[in-house]
Amino acid sequence: MTMTTQHLQGKIAFVTGANRGIGLETARGLAKLGATVVIGARNEQNGRETAKQLKEEGFKAESIRHDVNVSKDNEAAFRYFDEHYGKLDILVNNAGVMLDQEHISMEIVNRTGTMPLQLLRDSFDINFFGQVELTQLLLPLLRKSDAGRIVNLSSILGSLTLQANPESPIYAIKTFAYNAAKAAINAFTIHLAEELKDTNIKVNSVHPGWVNTRIGGDKAEFDETEGSRTSIRAATLPADGPSGSFLYLDGTLPW
User: Fold this and answer.
1) So what's the pLDDT on residue 222?
2) Region 188-201: what's the mean pLDDT?
3) What secondary structure letter does DSSP report for 156?
4) How far apart are the C-alpha atoms of 183 and 190, rounded to whole Å?
5) Which of left, alpha, beta for 104 (phi over 0: left; psi -120 to 50: alpha)?
6) What does pTM read for this prediction?
7) Could you give the C-alpha distances from 114 to 15, 119, 158, 198, 234, in angstroms and in order?
8) Which end of the chain has the smaller Cβ count within 10 Å, N or C?
9) Is residue 149 within 8 Å of residue 234, measured between CB atoms?
10) pLDDT on residue 223
11) For the domain 12-252, what is the CATH code?
């Protein structure tokens, strides 16, 4: 896959949960292409250190304290971009957690019938409601971009088609709270893309692959740089690129 299809000089990108992992590598990849990247991090000091690291590598980087699960932080993010840039070109909704299991490489136990409702609510708050709230708040700024791009980090585990197919390689991974929240973010992608179909904004879900992160575990097939490839692709789509799709590397996944 070619890493990009456009030059990002002058573009402003916001990557949530970007002080480590896939988010950091996504921010680094966009910065390499010329974008000014803003790191969203729950820990303000970690965010500053990450931005400093990218600056030392020769990139344009900033950071803001941001927890997608905190409405005041989402509102503050809008004010930051509105006051500093008056627009936003790229939003990568990267922040997320898996509360069902510590790692998907562990033995998976289907707890759907006994799943604590609070765990389910917590998963949706972080992986769905927070993402939706942030996107809605930032949408007026994305509308001011000449080529707005919204990237929703999903997972192949959110594919209802593959979850329902006994022949699918993910059929046995029934981490209910995580999978359901990712399926919900996919629905958000479809609906928002249709609403924005007559604008310059493209909205896509992405599956990063099985990546060696805190969620993916140390037996995963991809490193974090490889795991950022699809997010970068979605963030740099040309005018004739897809919108309302579930992207994975150079292809797509079934909903």
Assistant:
1) 58
2) 98
3) G
4) 11
5) alpha
6) 0.91
7) 34, 11, 20, 44, 37
8) N
9) yes
10) 59
11) 3.40.50.720
